[in-house]
Amino acid sequence: MDNIFESLKDWIISAVLEATNKIVRMREAELEATLLKRKEVADMLNIDVTTFDDHYRGLGGFPKELPARRWSKLAIIKWLEEQK
Fold first, then answer.
1. What is the spatial distance between Cα 19 and Cα 50, in angstroms, rounded to a whole number?
2. Distance between the two ends of the chain, CA-based, in angstroms?
3. Residue range 42-83, pLDDT digits in tens
4. Domains of the chain: which residue ranges?
5. Planar angle of CA 49, 53, 59, nearest 5 degrees
């Protein structure tokens, strides 16, 4: 009987992990597709747009500017996490 419960437990853990990983991948894809303007990036950094332009925009290691003067939201989030 214990073997049945152990198998059920393993199956539940596997199903939850699979579903969680799928949700995380979907959220990352959504964030990657979200492009931010200069003002939105500055707001995420809690700084003025001028400060962003002067000190962060060309900073080595900061996410690269994409066409149409946009930045990937996911890249900004990851960069912020790395700064902690």
1. 42
2. 48
3. 999 999 999 999 999 989 999 999 999 999 999 999 999 999
4. 1-33, 35-83
5. 130
